[in-house]
Amino acid sequence: MRKVDWRIIIGVGIVGVVCLVWLLVTGGLIWAALGEADREAITTAIGPRIALLVVMWAISLVAVGLVLRQLIAYFMTAPARLAEEAQVLLGTDVKRRLVAQGSVENRRLTDLFNQLVEQREALRSEMDVRVQEASRNTEMEKSRLAALMSELTKSVVVCNLDGRILLYNNRARMQFRALSKVPGVAGGAELVGLGRSIYSVFDRKLVTHALENIQHRLQRGAASPSAQFVTTTQAGQLLRVQMAPVRAVQSPDGAADIAVSNDLTGFVLMLDNITREFEADSEKDRVLYSLTEGSRAALANAQAAVEVLEYPDIEAEMRERLLHVIREEIQGLGKRIDEMQTSSTNNLRSRWPLEDMLGADFIEAAVRRIETSLPVRAEWDAVDTSLWLKVESFSLLQALVHLSSRLNIECGVDTVQLRLAENAQRAQLDLLWTPQTPDIKAMMNWELEQIRSGSETLSLTVQDVLTRHGGDSWYERDADGVRAFFRFLLPLAAPQEELASATFLRNESRPEYYDFDLFQSSEQSRSLEDRLLTELTYTVFDTETTGLNPAGGDEIIQVGAVRIVNGKLLQQEFFDQLVDPKRTIPAETIPIHGIKPEMVKGQPTIGQVLPAFHTFAQDTVLVAHNAAFDMRCLQVKEKATGIVFDHPVLDTLLLSAVLHPNQESHRLEAIAERFNVTVIGRHTALGDSIVTAEVFLKLIPLLAEKGILTLRQAREEAQKTFYARLKY
Description:
The protein is of the alpha+beta class. The strands form 5 sheets. It has a 6-stranded antiparallel β-sheet with strand order 3-4-5-1-2-15, with helices on both faces. The radius of gyration is 39 Å and the shape is elongated.
């Protein structure tokens, strides 16, 4: 579809009208000066040939149009293109010479621009050399950081307070991909990435609880607080997570020293996949249980038979029967041992790791949680601040909140107290209240109810939580009979000394995947439509298909995508997956995309690929070249897959037309050439995605120069272009 140049049509129309008016006026004057005989002679001569005059007039307009087209291209379009290309050089870091076109003056101006560009690039090169010299030490620090992070045996992830990932090492990348529900699709790339939310893997409540504990310890003066929790991922993996804070750095004006404040800017997570470890421990438990409880009866029967056999006057028939019993029991034991050696480890009982926590910190957290969640006032009663507990604090707090809620609803209790003391090498935690009625029947089974947290009902009961801690609980009254309480017996931990940060070795490192600028982001500050283009996270994608008619049966055979975070193209975070279309690939399309039928055979279907790609693109703006086609390919699969891509969409084809309306072509290759972007892997989904992403990054500063700063403005301007009429 070629864009119509209305300037030519309007120009030809004006010239045609002017010529026609001039001919009519001239003819009228001549007609008025002629006599009657002359008029009749002219009418007789010209009348039958008037159509010829009209044809010649039309032919002259065609000639005028051709001439006008050349003049516009020579004197108007060429300078306009020069201005657009010069704007590209001015607004981006593109390095290339402009091609001279049009008039002599325009060619001289092009040469002048090229000279200015050469001078600018020379100045840039000199400046780059100086910057590199000044930043050499910083780069050395970063390289050391990268080397250390790569060699760490633990997975490390750093997040800002919004839960957005801003650093991770390669081990974390591999571990997160192993946690994917569909690791066979694009290698599980949808879970890990800069700018992604950590809450796609971890429960937000767990992370928030750990952060609250750390914040409280910081306020109490701890130099290096940390927290630990265990969680189960969507893929059924068991992770042990240790959290440490990232604290704000303060440098007083004019001071050389840098101070670390107690204000959090983010947190560090160190991850261990302990699934296999716990499976092994659970199998040991099962074997031990089978050997003890399962063999107890057999051993008792054999022992009884042996004792009877010791009598000297036992009859021969009885002796044989007792020997038979002994043989059966021994054979049964042997068979049971053989079965245990070959049995599977399904339906395992899992242990739950407990963290060491100062008792006073737990009481403080419980008071805050109860008062925040319920219309109940919580108070300290008598707390031994020297006690350390070994607890899984998240579930234990939920149990306390559940019991407090039941007291409030069933018994009208509006105030509870918490008491902590040591009793026979165990921690004794009491939840106290003043009963309004002596009837306690209503609360006898609360410990066996499923815990309710707000509108959620958990699978755990209070008794389950205590079993997890190897503890116990009961209902009791104080000696004075005024107050009642639930008593929990919990394990104690060895007292810990919170060391100052100076006692730790200072390791210098830089990870492979990081963007510390994300510490400053705030995802909740503005709506997506009104946010700046420079602040958004993008998924730039492309599809390869069996044909150009997705509504008519053509299928997706490849999906490729890369991410742009904080203005940076993350080529290492990509989505690249072939798709089995479950139909033939037309032979005439194979030279275009290079995908042969044997390449897609056995690959995941579109029903498996689209959910993973949807997760990969979560919370981002979709970007594509000629996005109308790619979005149509996704749209026709909504009913079959149940996956709806309702993301905001930007199209580099339309944005190029907004910025450079005078260019002859807005094909991806033409735009890439204009921006000096190297095209690699054209007509592969991932290759086109990378080229589109690089082009898009060049377009953003040029859009800003035209006053197009937000997503809303970019979408509105794109819809005004001629190419927005393309439909599929």
